């Protein structure tokens, strides 16, 4: 009889709970003594306003709800305002109505406690509330949690939500979560179907669960289920291989693009002009530091003190989109700064050494030393912080493969640069002059081409491209005084392998080296060993094709 | 043998006597400080190394950026022996080198075992650089990689090797390399007498290397070597397998560099992978360029002069040293292609040119002194 | 083959550079002891032909045999040299930083090995021979001068001297008269004529028709055109050949 009564009361309460707002339900529930009862009521909560519910439950969990007694001894749930005075008194408000109850000292009143049973109930309510959250990230997180907990009780909520969900990624996640929960189903058929679904989805996180299922099924002697689970695992393993391969290919492509961006300037100065510029790396560093300076000007400003001279650059303290646009400004400035550096280098040193390639190598190495030390004295020996604009720092996940925006951007940018350089060389008058001078200097000079000026511009172009590369590298790696040294060996290798004097060769070799490097890293699991093998590979490659991939054949005897 | 060579030989003989007998004697009597002997011992090793670079670059036209690697390889071989000689006096008091204990080794890895023998270690000082040089040189010269390509490739070799030696699982001390040496041939390495002995050994090797190179230039090999430098293609059309000649020089120079490294390590008391970075190779090239390439005295003068300058500048103007070095290099390449040794001839030439512009009749190019 | 072997024979040789057909289906046979002059307009493939024989470039197809036994297309430059094929280049290439005498020492026949070169010393016969050559090429007074300091004509002579020192079986001489006075040219011709015989066969490439007449003396002359042999025969015959006139004088081809 009593049992029956209890049940009736409970039913009534539940029914009224649905009708009541979460605030009211919680205000009442807080006052109950029996935690199991509390848990039941909380568990039954759901609502039209998930945000409010989430906020309330979280407040309760964190001890933000208090119980006070009215003068008549009845208890009331209250929250406290943040208005502590000198006596530590705060305004207490009724939770259900929001009316002011009075001023109390937090330490003197009772906190609404929560125990583990209740917290568990809260968690599931919170999860369900999260499911309907308008924020995709939170939704996904909630779905994932439910799946990994494999709690059959959540199945109805998930199924209900599955019909409402519109976003494809969330849909897939729900499918995955449902299948995971169904792995715990009593029926073997459902389990087998769930295995199949997981296999088809290529669900990487479900691998451990499937393994457990397979193990249990094996012990129970359920052959069909074992086959299904193992089949799913195999499918997933295939998917993992695909994801790894695709990831490696993407990283290889982006590394190749970096190499390409770094080497394309060298392909012009070394490939076309035959000048060994060991300071090419420092041209890259000029670009990177220019980006840094521009960033500081957009931000809080910059103070430098090279050789004890104080230079103060005022900052614009820009925020949001304006700050994010610094990179757009930094790109052309990096190009210009490095191009000017290149121009000075060509006029000051290299033009005297066109006939002595080995010596231009040495002199430019001297320049490289001087520049590195100047960077050190100006910007300090440590790396400087260059932050990426927000539109370069996110990523996409497509089919479990991660595509960082900065890497995607590098690839797009590399394509743009190669296209630009090719067009410049092929379609513009300057390009025509450059090609003429590079092919036959004397002849060009005889035809009235001012070869000196063409040399100057070509070298400035090559250096400017290095500067652009520097702007890029600042988004991916560290910017420090010896930044250039990291890339110089790689860029020379890229140009040599590609075949000197051939832009297409440089493109192919950069991508090839990038892919090889990343694949070896993936296979060996060791970046340094991969790098060493790439270097060894290059040396062996040159055995096969000493002049690189693309040889510019000619009849001239002594080159 | 012409007059110039005779004068040079006389100078070298005097220097040899000073280095091998006079300075050590003065040191033993206290007139020359241990510090001086130690510093000069280092310079002598650098001078040997510089000669090896010059034999490649000045005489054969091979600008190798890999000499620091061979120097370091020689140094590492000596270092391994010195590490074994520490015995159980390391911090962990174990019979194997400290860093191996640190990496969790109980026993000596097998390739370390023979380095307990001095004779074997010294053999490896010669053999290891020779093997690496032969393998690399064979591949590079066979495919006729020359000029700047050779330089870039040797740079890559050095770079790759440095990356390898930086790794702990090479079991060669990783980043820190070898240090805290205690004994060499039973004597305390840090003892003044031992250091003096090493100084004398360095001096003898330097003089011997000088003598060897001087002899080499007088042989037909020397003729071919210079011919390769000036016109490799023509050499092939004179029936010489230029690749073999280059390989021989490359291997000989790697061995010389290795020996220099082996002498260097006990004198400075440390060897680590930073010694084999491409920058180090380029620094040696600076010594040779400043001293005067294509001569045998030039690299010695350059190595000593630049390193003396370095010791002074890194103390007096630490921030500016790299700028000084870089600037010096630019100036030498642009204005002193023949280095310090070629300076007198350059000055004479400058005045001769001015004279000839005054009297156009003398514009006919006169046979220049060899 | 019972016949005496060809000193050099080329069969079905083709070579192109980036689409330019420098040598087209070339067949060339030359007897031991012959002095053959090869003429032809610019770009006819004369120098490329010598490049192919000496291993400087490799043909796309075809073979070139020395004494019917050695296929030089499969050998490297120095191996070909060691067979006894010497070459004087079109532009004189001597070792500019070496003295005249050292240039000759480098070319002197004998071992070319690395280790031998370390301990090789000139014996008195060799020394006498080199002095003899110095006299022949008229550079006795320039013995210790740097070759780079010689005048153009003297460099030509020096290179001829280097060929003599080599004592080659087959001498390939590319435009020896360029940069020489008439008197020197005549002297070069005499020198070549005095050499030719069982021991030395010679191919001369030349533009100067006076010189060609002087050395060919009724011997066979080969005319190359567009990488192919246009005609062969004594110089008078060749000079009056219709096709040759066309090529040289640019008369319009009858059937294009």
Tell me the layout of helices and strands.
The complex is a heterotrimer of chains A (559), B (370) and C (256).
Chain A: H1 2-19, H2 22-31, H3 35-43, H4 50-61, E1 65-69, E2 75-80, E3 89-94, E4 100-105, E5 110-111, H5 116-131, H6 136-149, H7 155-164, H8 168-182, H9 188-201, H10 207-220, H11 223-272, H12 280-298, E6 302-304, E7 311-313, H13 320-324, H14 326-348, H15 357-379, E8 395-398, E9 401-404, H16 405-427, H17 429-439, H18 441-446, H19 451-476, H20 483-498, H21 503-524, H22 527-544
Antiparallel strand pairs in A: 1-2, 1-5, 2-3, 3-4, 6-7, 8-9
Chain B: H1 3-29, H2 34-60, H3 67-85, H4 98-102, H5 118-142, H6 147-165, E1 178-179, E2 183-184, E3 187-188, H7 192-218, H8 220-230, H9 232-236, H10 242-268, E4 270-271, H11 278-291, H12 297-316, H13 321-335, H14 343-358
Antiparallel strand pairs in B: 1-4, 2-3
Helix pairs in contact in B: 1-7, 2-7, 2-8, 2-10, 2-11, 2-12, 3-5, 3-10, 5-10, 7-10, 8-10, 11-12
Chain C: E1 6-17, E2 20-31, E3 35-39, H1 46-54, E4 61-66, E5 70-71, H2 77-84, E6 85-88, H3 100-107, H4 114-119, H5 124-136, H6 152-166, E7 170-174, H7 182-195, E8 201-205, H8 209-216, E9 221-225, E10 228-233, H9 235-239, H10 242-249
Parallel strand pairs in C: 3-8, 3-9, 6-7, 7-8
Antiparallel strand pairs in C: 1-2, 1-4, 4-5, 9-10
Helix pairs in contact in C: 3-6, 5-6
């Amino acid at each position: 009889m009593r049992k029956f009564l209890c049940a009736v009361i409970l039913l009534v309460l539940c029914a009224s709970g649905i009708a009541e707002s979460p605030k009211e339900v919680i205000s009442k529930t807080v006052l109950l003594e029996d935690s199991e009862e509390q848990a039941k009521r909380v568990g039954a909560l759901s609502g039209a306003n998930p945000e409010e519910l989430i906020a309330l439950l979280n407040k309760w969990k964190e001890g933000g709800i208090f119980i006070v007694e009215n003068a008549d001894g009845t208890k009331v749930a209250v929250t406290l305002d943040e208005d502590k005075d000198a006596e530590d008194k705060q305004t207490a408000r009724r939770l259900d109505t929001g009316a002011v109850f009075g001023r109390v000292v937090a330490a003197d009143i009772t906190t609404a406690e929560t125990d583990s049973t209740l917290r568990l109930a809260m968690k599931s309510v919170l999860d369900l509330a999260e499911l309907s959250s308008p924020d995709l990230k939170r939704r996904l997180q909630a779905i994932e949690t439910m799946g990994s907990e494999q709690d059959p009780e959540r199945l109805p909520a998930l199924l209900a939500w599955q019909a409402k969900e519109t976003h494809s990624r969330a849909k897939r996640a729900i499918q995955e979560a449902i299948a995971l929960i169904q792995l715990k189903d009593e029926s073997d058929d459902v389990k087998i179907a769930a295995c199949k679904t997981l296999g088809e989805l290529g669900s990487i996180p479900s691998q451990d669960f499937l393994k457990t299922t397979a193990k249990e099924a094996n012990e129970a002697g359920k052959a069909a289920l074992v086959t299904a689970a193992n089949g799913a695992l195999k499918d997933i393993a295939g998917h993992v291989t695909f994801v790894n391969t695709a990831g490696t290919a993407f990283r290889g492509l982006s590394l190749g693009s970096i190499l390409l961006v770094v080497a394309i300037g060298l392909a012009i100065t070394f490939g076309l002009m035959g000048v060994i510029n060991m300071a090419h790396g420092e041209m890259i560093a000029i670009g990177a530091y220019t980006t840094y300076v521009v960033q500081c000007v957009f931000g809080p400003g910059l103070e430098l003190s090279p050789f004890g001279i104080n230079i103060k650059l005022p900052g614009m303290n820009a925020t949001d989109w304006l700050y994010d646009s610094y990179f757009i400004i930094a790109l052309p400035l990096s190009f210009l700064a490095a191009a000017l550096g290149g121009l000075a280098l060509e006029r000051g040193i290299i033009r005297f050494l066109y006939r002595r390639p080995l010596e231009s190598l040495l002199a430019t190495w001297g320049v490289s030393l001087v520049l590195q030390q100047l960077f050190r004295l100006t910007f300090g020996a440590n790396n400087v912080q260059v932050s990426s604009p927000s539109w370069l720092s996110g990523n996409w996940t497509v089919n479990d493969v991660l595509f960082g925006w900065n890497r995607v951007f590098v690839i797009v940018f590399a394509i743009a640069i190669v296209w630009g350089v090719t067009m410049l060389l092929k379609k513009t008058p300057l390009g025509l002059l450059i090609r003429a001078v590079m092919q036959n200097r004397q002849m060009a000079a005889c035809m009235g081409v001012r070869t000196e000026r063409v040399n100057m511009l070509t070298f400035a172009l090559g250096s400017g491209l290095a500067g652009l590369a520097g702007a890029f590298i600042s988004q991916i790696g560290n910017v420090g005084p010896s930044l250039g040294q990291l890339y110089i060996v790689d860029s020379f290798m890229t140009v040599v392998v590609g075949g000197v004097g051939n832009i297409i060769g440089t493109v192919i070799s950069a991508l090839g080296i990038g892919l090889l490097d990343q694949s070896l890293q993936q296979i060996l699991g060791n970046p340094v060993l991969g790098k060493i093998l790439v270097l060894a590979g290059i040396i062996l490659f040159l055995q096969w094709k000493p002049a690189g991939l693309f040889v510019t054949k000619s009849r001239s005897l002594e080159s | 043998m012409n007059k110039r060579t005779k004068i040079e030989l006389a100078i070298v003989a005097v220097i040899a006597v000073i280095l091998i007998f006079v300075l050590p004697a003065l040191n033993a009597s206290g007139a020359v400080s241990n510090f001086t002997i130690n510093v000069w011992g280092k310079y002598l090793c650098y001078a040997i190394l510089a000669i090896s670079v010059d034999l490649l670059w000045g005489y054969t036209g091979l600008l190798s950026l890999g000499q620091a690697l061979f120097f370091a390889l020689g140094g590492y071989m000596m270092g391994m022996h010195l590490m074994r000689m520490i015995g159980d006096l390391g911090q962990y008091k174990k019979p194997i080198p400290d860093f191996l204990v640190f990496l969790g080794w109980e026993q000596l890895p097998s390739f370390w075992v023979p380095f307990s023998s001095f004779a074997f270690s010294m053999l490896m000082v010669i053999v290891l650089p020779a093997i690496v040089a032969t393998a690399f040189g064979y591949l590079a010269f066979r495919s006729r990689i020359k000029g700047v390509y050779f330089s870039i490739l040797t740079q890559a070799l050095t770079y790759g090797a440095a990356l390898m030696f930086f790794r702990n699982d090479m079991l060669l001390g990783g980043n820190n390399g070898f240090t805290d040496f205690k004994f060499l041939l039973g004597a305390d390495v840090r003892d003044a007498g031992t250091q003096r002995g090493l100084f004398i050994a360095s001096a003898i090797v330097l003089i011997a290397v000088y003598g060897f190179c001087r002899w080499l230039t007088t042989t037909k090999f020397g003729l071919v070597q210079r011919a390769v430098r000036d016109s490799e293609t023509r050499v092939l059309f004179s029936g010489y397998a230029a690749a073999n000649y280059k390989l021989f020089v490359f291997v000989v120079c790697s061995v010389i560099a290795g020996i220099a490294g082996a002498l260097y390590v006990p004198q400075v008391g440390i060897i680590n992978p930073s010694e084999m970075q491409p920058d180090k190779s380029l620094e040696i090239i600076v010594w040779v360029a400043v001293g005067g390439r294509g001569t045998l005295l030039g690299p010695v003068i350059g190595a000593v002069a630049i390193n003396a300058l370095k010791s002074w500048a890194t103390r007096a103007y630490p921030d500016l040293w790299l700028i000084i070095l870089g600037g010096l290099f630019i100036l030498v390449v642009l204005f002193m292609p023949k280095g310090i040794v070629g300076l007198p001839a350059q000055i004479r030439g400058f005045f001769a040119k001015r004279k000839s512009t005054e009297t156009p009749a003398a514009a006919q190019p006169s046979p220049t002194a060899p | 083959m019972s016949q005496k072997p060809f000193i050099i024979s080329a069969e079905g040789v083709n070579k192109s550079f980036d689409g330019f057909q420098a040598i087209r289906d070339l067949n060339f046979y030359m007897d031991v002891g012959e002095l053959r002059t090869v003429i032809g307009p610019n770009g006819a493939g004369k120098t490329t032909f010598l490049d192919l024989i000496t291993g400087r470039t490799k043909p796309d197809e075809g073979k070139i045999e020395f004494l019917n036994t050695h296929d030089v297309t499969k050998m490297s430059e120095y191996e070909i040299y060691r067979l006894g094929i010497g070459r004087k280049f079109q532009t004189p290439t001597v070792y500019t930083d070496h003295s005249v005498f050292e240039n000759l020492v480098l070319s002197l026949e004998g071992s070319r090995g690395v280790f031998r070169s370390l301990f090789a010393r000139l014996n008195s016969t060799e020394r006498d021979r080199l002095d003899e050559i110095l006299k022949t090429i008229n550079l006795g007074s320039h013995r210790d001068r740097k070759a780079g300091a010689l005048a153009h004509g003297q460099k030509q002579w020096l290179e001829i001297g280097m060929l003599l020192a080599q004592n080659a079986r087959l001498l390939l001489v590319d435009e020896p008269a360029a940069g020489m006075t008439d008197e020197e040219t005549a002297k070069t011709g005499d020198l070549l004529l005095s050499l030719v015989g069982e021991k030395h066969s010679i191919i001369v490439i030349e533009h100067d028709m006076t010189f060609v007449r002087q050395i060919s003396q009724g011997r066979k002359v080969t005319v190359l055109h567009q990488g192919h042999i246009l005609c062969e025969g004594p110089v008078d015959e060749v000079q009056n050949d219709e096709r040759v006139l066309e090529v040289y004088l640019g008369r319009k081809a009858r059937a294009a």
